[in-house]
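Exercise 3.2. Students should predict the tertiary structure of the chain below and write it as structure tokens, then compare their answer with the key that follows.

Predict this chain's 3D structure.
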Amino acid sequence: MRVLIKGGHVIDPKTNTNGIMDILVEDGIITEIGKDIEIPNGDIIYAEGKMVLPGLVDAHCHLRDPGFEYKEDIETGTMSAAMGGFTSIACMPNTDPVCDNEAIVKYIINKAKQDGFVNVYPIGAISKGQKGEELSEIGELKFAGAVAISDDGKPLKSSSLMKKALEYSSMFDIAVISHCEEMDIADGGVMNEGYWSTIMGLKGIPSAAEEIMVARDIILSEYTKVPVHIAHVSTELSIDLIRHAKKRGVKVTCETCPHYFVLIDEACSGFNTLAKVNPPLRTKKDVEAVIEGLKDGTIDMIATDHAPHHNDEKNVEFNLAANGMVGFETALPLAITYLVKPGHLTISQLVEKMCVNPSKLLGINKGTLEIGRSADITIIDINEEFVVDINNFKSKSKNSPFNGFKLNGSVYYTLVNGNAIVREKILL
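Answer key:
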């Protein structure tokens, strides 16, 4: 089957492509990029006035399958991802049972092939059962199809075990993603420690809880000479630590999420559980530091940390509410509205952070429009304004603090392996 995308503004920093062009797709593969391509028959997508990007890649999300399908499953999660312009997503292992063995990795891969709308890549657990006591069989996870290892929300307390995880990961060439939180310092906190936690009478999580672990993992990476990836950085000092480490040649990469460059801890006021997330929303100074880190390249990528929860898990007292928010369907528009429109990033730099670099981290052949690659393509109208309506989300869960926000950047088409999953903003 042939698909011709005509007259769109094609952007791919990996191939230095930036201009009005046509893209020809044959049997799911990009075969030609150029001007005035014509075909006698096939599906023609007219993309004039729109931007044609590589399909977005999310290196950090939660699909809740297996075990928590009441929040999300692979079908609804990938529907939501497609609506947000994502064509490849990597899901965290905090499922039930935990994704710490070959069987669960293969379950996710096979279910995604059967029910999924986009490419799904499992992330395996660093430790068995995410208990932080004993390493998972890292080689087994890799050979089964895992693209990274992480204990995600249960950070490795043991420095010795983290060191071993890095050493083993280098043998199998698999990325280590670290959730940096010193749990003894976080000590049951529920939001950022500061003015708003004091006003609300809630126990705060100091910035130091994140920063101490960032420092530790940088030191271990430098010592072992093995790369480490820091998940969802949120504080000024964390970013400074990573910036200086990179200057020293440490193989450290990191990501942030849209809520860390858009919202501050004040969003929790009125005990708004939709803004409860881990790491917590920080201060205006931290938000500015995150934006600066994205601008100067310290922060390599933007991930969603898509974390669906049932309404009953959010509609409770703030202390008891679950951490996290859904992110697939707002990530790109938030990045366009708060990073591209104000001039912090060019659209090409944004593509680098949402396509090229996540693919590099996960070791997958995605995030580019190179000839010969799978036709994973996202077509957007960068200028179109819309109001976020959680009721339109394809995710099972609606836990987003961005309901009612006016944003720019509508996803018109999402193509996965040449098939239009989203066409004219409608999921097929």
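Discussion points: The first strand starts at residue 2 and ends at 12. The mean pLDDT is 97.
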